[in-house]
């Protein structure tokens, strides 16, 4: 049985910089977006103030994209 990978805490004396987390993405209704798999689209709905999911229209096909939106980018 394998153990799950734990997040390592950086040492204060480490010469390496600690990675900075990316700021969370926020989308609003009407934003033009690009998705790595589905292509170009426009947001038509936002769930939970943008923290849960967004509904995106990709040329007549609506797709619900869940947070953390790793493949979705605002144009």
Automatic annotation (TrEMBL):
Residues 1-24 are annotated as: Disordered. This is ATP-binding protein. It comes from Kitasatospora kazusensis. The lineage of its organism: Bacteria, Bacillati, Actinomycetota, Actinomycetes, Kitasatosporales.
